[in-house]
Amino acid sequence: MKIIGISGSPREGASEFLLKKALSELEKEESFETKFITVRDRNINPCTHCDNCVETKGKCSIDDDMNEIYSLLKESDGIILASPIHFGSISAQLKAIIDRCQALIMEDLDIFKNKVGISIVVGGDRTGGQELAIQQINTFYLLNKIIPLSGGAFGANLGACLWSQDGGAEGVKKDEYGLKTLDMTINNFKEFLLEFKC
Ligand SMILES: Cc1cc2nc3c(=O)[nH]c(=O)nc-3n(C[C@H](O)[C@H](O)[C@H](O)COP(=O)(O)O)c2cc1C
């Protein structure tokens, strides 16, 4: 099974660290092949609502690094979106990727159907908007028939919610509770994919 993980942070910080940790956990199972993508070194522009994708059934008029991400998203069985919290929600960079998916959806309204998705979010504050950010990612999943998963009750109700205390990767390593939410979410994702998609 192919898993694409996208970090929406503009820097090499907590989100990238957490996403890489999640992907390396999945790589322990031979059933998973993972691909790590970060917005940090890529040129991804926001959607301009030119409607070219609507008129051509899927051709985006913007020629940038989204082309590579389109292919990876299409062939994936599972999607992990990771984001820092920027003013109470996901980063603008991750939102640009989500919006640009309009082109894929115009190619085929069922393009994402039955893929499985989880979220990893990290704020500088313990309660800085992590749950709202996950709801935003889950809205994208729900709208597009992606099955959204969390880590379950008693710990990871909506997914992986972490707190970096604005200390980047080193800061988030101290968030023992948050790291547990990541473990629970990855385990649930792994179990679900192995049970229903193998
Ligand atoms: C523009 C901006 C806005 C931010 N807004 C919030 C916020 O609303 N809530 C919060 O908890 N942290 C906020 N932060 C802090 C980051 O979410 C936090 O440092 C996070 O761990 C960064 O992740 P990264 O290292 O992966 O980039 C903000 C940071 C930036 C740059």
Automatic annotation (TrEMBL):
Coiled coil (residue ranges): none
UniProt cross-references to InterPro entries, sorted A to Z: Flavoprotein-like_sf, FMN_Rdtase-like_dom, ISF_SsuE-like
Keywords per UniProt: Flavoprotein, FMN
GO molecular function, one term: oxidoreductase activity
Keyword Transcription: no
Domain NADPH-dependent FMN reductase-like: 1-156
Keyword Flavoprotein set for record: yes
Pfam families, per database record: FMN_red
SUPFAM superfamilies: Flavoproteins
Required cofactor(s): [4Fe-4S] cluster; FMN
Similarity annotation: Belongs to the SsuE family. Isf subfamily.
Name of the featured protein: NADPH-dependent FMN reductase
Classification of source organism: Archaea, Methanobacteriati, Methanobacteriota, Methanomada group, Methanobacteria
